[in-house]
Every structure is written in structure tokens, then in C-alpha cells.
User: Fold this.
Amino acid sequence: MKHLLPGLKLFVLMSLFTGLLYPALITIVAQIFFKEKADGQMTLIAQKFENEKYFWGRPSSVAYNPLPSGGSNLGPTSAELKKQFEDRKTKLRKSHPEKTYDCPQDLLFASGSGLDPDISPASAMYQIERVSRARTGISVDQLSELIQQQTQNRQWGVFGEPRVNVLQLNLALDSIEVQK
Amino acid sequence: MKLSDLSQIFVYVFALVLLAPWLAEFISQLFFGQRTLLHPVFERLEKWLYRVCKIDPKEEMNWKDYCIALLIFNFLGFAFVFVLQITQNFLPLNPQNLPRVSWHSALNTAISFMTNTNWQGYAGESTMSYFTQALGLTVQNFLSAASGVAVFFALTRGLIRKSQGSLGNFWVDLTRTTVYLLLPLSILFSIVLVGQGVVQNFSPYVSVKTLEGATQVLPMGPAASQIAIKQLGTNGGGFFNANSAHPFENPTPLSNFLQMLAILLLPAALVLAYGKMVGARSQGWTLFAVMFLVWFLSLVFSMAAEFQTNPNFNLGSLMEGKETRFGVTNSLIWSTATTVASNGSVNAMHASLSPSAGGLAIFNIMLGEVIFGGVGAGMYGMLLYVFLTVFLAGLMVGRSPEYLGKKIEAPEIKMAILGILGPCAVILVGAAISVDLPLATASLANKGPHGFSEILYAFTSAAGNNGSAFAGLNANTPYFNLMLGLVMLVGRFVVIIPSLAIAGHLVSKKISPPSTGTFASDTPLFGILLIAVIVIVGALTFLRALSLGPLVEHFLMLQKQVF
Assistant:
């Protein structure tokens, strides 16, 4: 038991350094240099959009409630997942009568976090006729241009996939309306 | 598959192979007690810690002392994390007034973080106060990883020291690893993560009004500082429930790339450092090649499986459980890296992967977490397989087996077998008991073979100290919290204690010079033999269990069966 006392002291000090001083140091640095990011950017978290006037985001298995986040965890042979998938497909086809094909699959499957803020550019383009219909005076061409502006390409040209942040897109859409 | 998929894999491999040797050099300097480029900054802290704790850094420990020191230190960590959780409602830094954690969940979580598993039956953002996350969980993220490195150092000393009795000093190995390696890397990494948008504050949760007028509460907290070490230390326990799929935990493709790199960085560097430590880099590179090959094949097969069409949906590479910003390829690089390396963090839900890609995630863990494996843990686990391979090769040609000049004899092989088969046994026994208990099967989310896979994955993950899951399973019940807690303890210490015992045996042996009859352990032939031993042990032990889960699910999926 000669190891107990040095062990206990070392444990206390290590806890102090790695559990208090280290997080505190990072918080101070973060708050000085990246305050906005360290405090959590609202646009990173998906919001629920069901109004015809807005672009819609990915389905969420936590109903866009971040407490707590999570996915459906339904497997590749889940009858429930198949039903959700068919229901979403039917609903989206019905809301977009101009389209003769099904929407891209990111709108048909729920994200892992339930809070995925992005959709693929193709999923945004799928919705332009509907949004244009719901907003008098904004043409399909304007919307497709807006989506191009809002598309984030692969980071550094390599990482990830091209995407459109749904909240930012909708905020931009609202600001066009205001300008008129 | 597009060019962009291939180029992301290429950049990942390139970065790993570029950075690991550089870090390996640094680790071997720590091992030999040489001055590193960080000594000017952190040496005073190291010396101060020894002085205050009355530790004599020159004091040597035999294997039993080393083991007892480790067990005491880990038990203190366990007890502290347990107490923090059940008293967090009285403690500071709890702006959401989260209640105390249930005793069985607290017990499970304390074991989980102490054993470097980071299995999580709880959801971080709605369970743990900032105080518990930082002072309890973050600390164990460091110390469990450092404990793993310490055991690896001790075992290596057993191999390179001639006719001695001691393996070094546990306190010194632990302190050096934490102070010079884990802490500086984490500081650097967490600041980069905040720059990408990972949250880092101690504020109350923020209520926002959505564009459509609803109210949404956004969780906050000191996330970046915990996530950095969670990735670097092969811990994997998310600050938030969705782990690295959460936009506040992993906001951009770049943060994702760096977190993926951090999964394999230290385990890979430790393998290469091993070559330097035993005086022949080729020994390290041979093991690296073995690990790399197995991981890469696993990635190739996972990709092939995931891009295959699932007839139930008439689509391939389903986006269920995946994030748009990462896409399919990054989800699979992650799912294979995190399972070979006993990290256990996820950026996509493994439960929603195709049957074969999900099955490979389980199989990767079943290989014993020696393909890169945990920080330190992967290497001492791999060395058990190396001893076994050397022994089998010796049997084949009828010579007494030797490794690096040390005779491998009955006591070493007995211990190695215990360390290899112990975790296997608890996976199969635990899963077999659970599928027969209504109490356990009530926790399942999926029906059919996928439900069986949920239970098999849970026990595999716990025994391999991995921490990932088919997370449909509601594991936050007294039954699973206790069972999996027990399995995690077995998975950790039934490997650590035999490894240290082997080190104790080996260190007293003399080193015989290589002769013409020596079976070289740094050749492609040895590498192939080692892969064969690892895969055959894994396959023979688990093929039947896997055939009831992922394998049968794959064929039923092709028949358009749903459950």
C-alpha cells in the first residue's frame, strides 16, 4: 500500500490540471479569439421547416429537439424505416407536383444527429418550384441562383460533400422578400 | 464511388503516414527519458508533480508493484467519477440543474471511462453537468489513455532489458505521457476545433426562436476541450449524445477530417515508436503494415457493401444516420477507423449502416482491438498475438520460440492466451445470456437479426473497450449497466494484468543473439503469419455469432425481407 499516497496525490493534481485548468485555458483562448463560434452558432443546428414558403431540411428522429440529439438507429432491414421512407417519399412527391422524379435521398432519410443543418444542393433544387409558388414574385431562376450562392463546396476543395445550409438559405430568402 | 471519395481516402492515408513517424520519434524520446522539444515548457511541471507527490522518478518497480500502482490509480479514478455523478446536483457548474445520475448508470459510466471504453448509456447533454464532464470524464480521457501507454512501455522494457527485475516506474510513465504527449496535443487540437465551430463555454443552454416561430434549446458546454482528448486518446465518449455526428461536436468537413486523423494518429505512432524502442525500426514498420493492411481491407469491403443497392429501398449508400456535410465515404473511413482502434466515437450511426458494413464494424472490434487498437492498449494487445505467432511458428519447425532474443516459454504463452481469449469469452457468454433474458431483449429497438446484432455489438464493444454501439439498444437499464460494466472490467484488466506478468517474466531473461535458425519477426512472411493468426482466432471464435446477426441479415436484405 506504499503506492496509495503518491497515487492519491498524483490523481488529485492530474485532475486539477486536465479537468479544471486545461478546460479553463481552452475556454479563455476560445472566448478571446473565437467568441462567436465558441458560444455555438445557431445556423449549425437544424430547425424544423414545414411551411411551403421555406426550403425544408432533412427528417429528424428527435423532432429537431437538441435535448438530446440522436438518430433513429433503425437498421437496413427495418420495416419501420421502410414505412417512414415510403411516407416521406409520397409526401414530398405530392408537395412537388412539378417534379416527375423522387427527391434526393437525404430528404428521405433522417440524419445521425437529428440536427443536420444541411441538405445536398440537388435537394434544394428539388424544392424551387414549390417555394416559388408559395412566394409571389420570386421566380424559379432567382431561387436557383440563390441556391448556387448558398452552396458550400468541399472544404479546401477536398473534404466532405457540397451542401446548402437550410437555415441560411431561408434567411437569405426572407431578406429578398424584405427588399421588395 | 467518385474521384472525390478516393481523394479523401488518399489524403487521410497520406496524412497518417506522414505524421505518425514524426510523432513516433517524439514518443520514443519520452520512453528513453530523453529531452524533447517540449521539455523547456513542461519540464518544471513534471518535476513539480514528482516533488509534491513524493515520487522518486529513479525508483524502479517490479511487475507486481507496477501493476498494483496502476490498479490503485485506476480505482481512484473510478471512485471519483462515480461520486461526482451521484452528487452532481450539489456541485457547481450545473446551470441546467441536472439531477444526480442513477447509481447503476453512474457505476457503468465510471467503469467505462476508467477503462478507456467510453461506452455511454446516457445522453451527455441531458444527463451530465459541466462539472462532471470536465473534472470527471475529461480527466479519465487523459488518464486511461496514459495508463495504456504505461503498460505498453512496461511490456517493451520487459523485452529490451537483459536479466533484470524491474519494468520502470508507473508514476513516471503516466506523468510523462500526460504532460508531454496528451496535454500539449489536446491543447493544440481543441483550439483548432473551436476555430471550426465546436462549442467551448460554461454558459447555460441557449433558447432560440426558430424562423417558423418555435422554441429550440441549444446545449452548451466545455465541449472542445473534451472532444480533443476523446479523439486523441482512443476514448470516444461524446460530449453530446450524437457524438461526432452532432454539429456542435463536429461542425465542418475539416473538423471531421482532423478528428478522424486523431483516431489513428497516436495508435499508429506508438507502433512505429515501438520499432525505435526495441532498436529495429523494421519491427515497428512490420506491425504497422499488418495493421494498416487489415484496416484498409476492412475499409474497402465496407465501402463495397455500403454502395451496394439495398433492395428494400432500391437505393445504395443510404443516408439514414449519416450527415450531409460528411457524406458516405467519410462515414465509412470513420466507422472502420473507430472500430479497429478501440476509439468508439461515431460520426454516423452504425446501426443504420448496411448489414456488411455494420458487421465489419463488429468484426473489427472482435479482432481484439489490436489493429492499431487503443492508445498503448493496441500495442500490448498486439504483442500478445506476436508471442502467440512466434510460438506457433516455433511449433511448426520444432524450434524453441524466441522473440527479439527472448525465449517465449509456457508461462508467457499461458498469459498471452488468457489475455486473448478472456475478452472473447465474455463477449460470447454475455451475449448468449442476454438474448435469453426477456429483461434484456426488452431493450431492443430493431427486430430480426438486427436486434441480435444490437446485443452482440454491445458486448463486443464493452469487451474490446471500444464504446461504439448499435445504439437502438436501450442500454441504460440496471441489467445492461451492470453486465456491460463487468465486461468492460474484464476486457481491460484481463489483458493488462497478463501483459504485465509477461513483462515480469521476460525482463529477467537474457537476450540471445540472433542465429541462422532465428525466425525473423520483421519480414513479410512474419507479417502474413501474424495476420493469419489474428484473423483465424477472430473468425473461429465469432463466425457463428456473426452468422446469426449481420451475415443472415445481409442475405435476408437481398431477399427484400423486413422486420
In short: Residues 42-179 of chain A form one domain. The CA atoms of residues 4 and 90 of chain A lie 66 Å apart. The beta strands of chain A are 118-119, 151-152, 163-165. The helical segments of chain A are 4-33, 35-38, 79-95, 121-126, 128-134, 140-150, 166-179.
